[in-house]
C-alpha cells in the first residue's frame, strides 16, 4: 500500500517539476534610441515652371520651352542626367471668378512642368539655383539635404541605439536587485533622416543656402532574460 502511495506521489510531482522547469524566466523589454548628426553632402530640390496663355497649346509650348532651357543649363552645370527627373506635367484651365456678375468661365490655361534635381556638390548649390531662376524657373520647393552614402551613418545610429537599450536594461535590473540575462530578441522600430538647425551659409552663391547638418536616427526594442537576485 505504501509503495502504491509513493508511486502515486511521484507521478503527481513529476509533471509539476517539469512545468516549473519549462516556465519562462522573467523578462524585461526596453527601447533604445540612436542618433548621429553628420554634415550632408547632397541636396534635392524641386524646380517648377508655370506658364499662362489663352490657348492651351501655347501655354504648354511655353512651359516646355523653359523646361528645355533648364535641362540645357543643368547640362552646362555638370548635373548628370540620372540626377534629374520630371516629376509632374500639368495643364489646367484658368477660370474667371464671376464676381462682377458675369458668368463664370474659362479665361485661359496654365501649364506646369516640375523637375526634381539632385545636386551632389553642395558648394555649387546656390549657383545652380540662381542659374535655373535666370533661365525661367518660377517655382522652387522641397529643398532637402541628405547623404550619398547613408549606410555607414545608419549603422553607427543602430550601434548607438543598441548600446542605449543595453544601458537602460542594466540600470533597471540593478534597481530591481536582479541580474541581467542574455538577449532574447532585437527589433528595429524604424529609422530616418531629419534636418538639424542650419549652421553656415554657402559663400559666393547667387542664392544663399544653409546646409547645416543631417540627423540620422533609429530605435531598437530589446528583450532580455532576468536572472536571480543580485549578490
From TrEMBL:
Keyword set includes Signal: yes
One Pfam family name is SIMPL
Which keywords annotate this record? Signal
Q: Which residues form the signal peptide?
A: 1-18
Q: List all membrane-crossing ranges.
A: none
Say which domain of life the source belongs to: Bacteria
> Could you tell me which PANTHER family the record lists for this protein?
PERIPLASMIC IMMUNOGENIC PROTEIN (PTHR34387:SF1), SLR1258 PROTEIN (PTHR34387)
Instruction: Return the protein name.
Output: SIMPL domain-containing protein
| Organism lineage string | Bacteria, Pseudomonadati, Pseudomonadota, Alphaproteobacteria, Rhodobacterales
Amino acid at each position: 500500500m505504501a509503495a502504491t502511495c509513493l508511486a502515486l506521489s511521484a507521478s503527481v510531482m513529476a509533471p509539476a517539476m517539469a512545468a516549473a522547469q519549462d516556465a519562462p524566466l522573467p523578462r524585461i523589454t526596453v527601447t533604445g534610441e540612436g542618433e548621429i548628426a553628420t554634415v550632408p553632402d547632397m541636396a534635392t530640390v524641386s524646380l517648377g515652371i508655370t506658364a499662362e496663355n489663352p490657348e492651351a497649346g501655347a501655354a504648354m509650348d511655353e512651359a516646355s520651352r523653359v523646361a528645355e532651357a533648364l535641362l540645357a543649363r543643368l547640362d552646362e552645370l555638370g548635373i548628370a542626367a540620372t540626377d534629374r527627373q520630371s516629376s509632374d506635367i500639368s495643364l489646367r484651365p484658368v477660370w474667371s471668378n464671376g464676381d462682377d456678375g458675369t458668368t463664370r468661365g474659362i479665361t485661359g490655361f496654365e501649364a506646369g512642368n516640375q523637375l526634381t534635381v539632385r545636386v551632389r556638390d553642395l558648394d555649387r548649390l546656390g549657383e545652380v539655383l540662381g542659374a535655373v531662376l535666370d533661365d525661367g524657373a518660377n517655382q522652387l520647393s522641397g529643398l532637402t539635404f541628405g547623404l550619398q552614402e547613408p549606410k555607414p551613418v545608419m549603422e553607427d545610429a543602430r550601434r548607438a541605439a543598441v548600446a542605449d537599450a543595453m544601458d537602460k536594461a542594466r540600470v533597471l535590473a540593478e534597481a530591481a536587485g536582479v541580474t541581467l540575462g542574455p538577449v532574447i530578441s532585437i527589433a528595429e522600430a524604424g529609422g530616418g533622416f531629419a534636418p538639424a538647425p542650419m549652421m553656415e551659409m554657402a559663400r559666393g552663391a547667387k542664392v544663399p543656402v544653409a546646409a547645416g547638418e543631417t540627423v540620422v536616427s533609429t530605435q531598437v526594442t530589446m528583450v532580455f532574460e532576468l536572472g536571480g537576485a543580485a549578490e
